[in-house]
Design brief:
Length: 364
C-alpha cells in the first residue's frame, strides 16, 4: 500500500483537477513520511478559503484527492449557508500508515510551513483524523490555524459545537415530521461516536431521547451505550434499523441508491461531511418521504464557532446560542421544500447561491 502512495502523479489525478470547478489544488509529497498533501481551494467569493485538515490512510492518493475536492466544495456551501465571510477549502494529509510521535509532529510542522508559503491564502483547522493537539502543533509554526489563540496552550475542539448544531437539526427534523421536537422517547441512531457523535449522544440522552449507537470500535460503543442506557446497533444493521432520526457522524457517501431503500427512519441529520454519494440521492430520500437535513447545514456548528471566535466572540453562551440558530435556518429550508415540492438539498443550494450571488454583485 505504501508503494501505491509513493507512486508518481497519475493521469487520473490531473484529470480530477482539470475537471474540478474550484480555484485549484496545491499538491506536495512529504518524503520523510511518504504522505501526499493536498490543499484544495474551491471558492473565495466570500473570503479566503478556510476548512479543516483531514488525516487518513487511503488506498490510493487519487482517493485522497477526490476527498479533498469534495470536502473543499462542501466548505464553500457551509460558509455560505451560515453566512460567514470565508471561502471553501480543505486539506488532506494522505498518510501511508498511522503516524505518531516525532513522525507526526514533523509532518504537521512541514504542513504548517507549507501554509506559511501560501501567505494566508488558506486557513486550516481540525477535521476527521486530526485533533486539537495536532492544531497546536501546526500553530507552533504558522498562524493559519482556526481555534488556536496566539500563544495559547489549548486548542478549541469544534466537536461539541458541531454536536449542538446537529442536535438542533434533529429537533428541526422532528418538528417537521412528528410535529414536536420533544426528545422524550425519540429513537436517534448515531453512526460513529467520535468527537461529534459522543457529545451528540450525551446531549440527546440528557434531553430524554433514546440513543442507538453504532461504531467500528466495539468496546467504545458498548461502554457509551451502557453509560447512557442506549442500545448498540451492529454495523451491518445500521441502515435498516427502525428509528426516528438517523444521524450519520462518521464517514461520507453513506447515503446512496444502495442504502436509501433500506432506511427505516423519518429523517436524517448528522455531522458527517458529504453524506450523499451523489446530489441525486437527495431526490431518492425525498421520494421516500425521508426528511434530509443537508449535511453542510446540519454540521455547520463547528465552523460557526470558529468563525465567531475569529471575529472576537469568546463567551461560550454566545457561541452556543448562535450555533443553536441552525435549527431555525433548517426550519426555513424544510418549509420552502414542503411548499415548493423540492428536496431540502435544492432549497439549501438556492440559499447558498443567493448568498454567493449577492457577494459577487458589484457594489454601487
Ligand atoms: N472540520 C470541521 C468542519 O468540517 C470544523 C472546521 C470548520 C474546521 C471550519 C476548520 C474550519 O466543519
Amino acid at each position: 500500500m505504501s508503494g501505491a502512495l509513493a507512486s508518481p502523479m497519475t493521469g487520473e489525478m490531473f484529470e480530477l483537477m482539470a475537471e474540478w470547478d474550484g480555484i485549484g489544488v496545491i499538491v506536495r509529497h512529504d518524503a520523510p513520511t511518504g504522505t501526499w498533501i493536498f490543499i484544495a481551494l474551491h471558492d473565495d467569493t466570500l473570503g479566503r478559503p478556510v476548512g479543516g485538515c483531514r488525516m487518513k490512510v487511503y488506498e490510493r492518493p487519487e482517493d485522497a484527492l477526490v476527498d479533498a475536492l469534495r470536502l473543499a466544495k462542501g466548505m464553500t456551501s457551509k460558509w455560505a449557508a451560515i453566512d460567514f465571510p470565508f471561502g471553501g477549502g480543505k486539506s488532506v494529509l494522505a498518510i501511508p500508515h498511522e503516524l505518531e510521535g516525532a513522525e507526526r509532529t514533523g509532518l504537521l510542522h512541514r504542513f504548517g510551513a507549507l501554509l506559511n508559503t501560501l501567505n494566508g491564502t488558506y486557513g486550516t483547522g481540525e477535521d476527521m483524523g486530526t485533533t486539537p493537539e495536532d492544531m497546536l502543533t501546526i500553530a507552533q509554526v504558522t498562524s493559519n490555524v482556526m481555534g488556536v489563540e496566539p500563544g495559547s496552550t489549548a486548542a478549541i475542539d469544534p466537536g461539541p459545537y458541531t454536536a449542538l448544531g446537529v442536535f438542533e437539526s434533529i429537533r428541526s427534523v422532528l418538528r417537521h415530521t412528528v410535529g414536536s421536537d420533544d426528545m422524550t422517547g425519540k429513537r436517534i441512531l448515531i453512526q460513529g461516536i467520535g468527537r461529534v457523535g459522543d457529545p451528540l449522544a450525551r446531549t440527546i440522552s440528557a434531553a430524554g431521547g433514546q440513543v442507538l449507537l453504532s461504531d467500528v470500535d466495539a468496546s467504545r460503543v458498548a461502554a457509551l451505550a451502557e453509560e447512557l442506557g442506549g442500545a448498540v446497533v451492529p454495523a451491518e444493521a445500521v441502515y435498516s434499523t427502525d428509528c426516528d432520526v438517523f444521524a450519520p457522524c462518521a464517514i461520507g457517501a453513506i447515503l446512496s441508491e444502495d442504502t436509501i431503500p433500506l432506511l427505516e427512519c423519518r429523517g436524517v441529520a448528522g455531522s458527517a461531511n458529504n453524506q450523499l454519494r451523489d446530489d441525486d440521492d437527495a431526490d431518492l430520500l425525498h421520494g421516500r418521504g425521508i426528511l434530509y437535513a443537508p449535511d453542510y447545514m446540519a454540521n455547520g456548528g463547528g465552523a460557526m464557532a470558529f468563525g465567531l471566535i475569529f471575529q472576537g466572540v469568546t463567551e461560550d453562551e454566545a457561541l452556543k446560542s448562535r450555533v443553536s440558530t441552525i435549527g431555525a435556518s433548517l426550519d426555513e429550508i424544510f418549509e420552502e421544500s414542503a411548499s415548493e415540492s423540492i428536496s431540502p438539498l435544492v432549497s439549501a443550494s438556492r440559499r447558498v447561491e443567493r448568498i454567493l450571488m449577492a457577494a459577487r454583485m458589484p457594489t454601487a
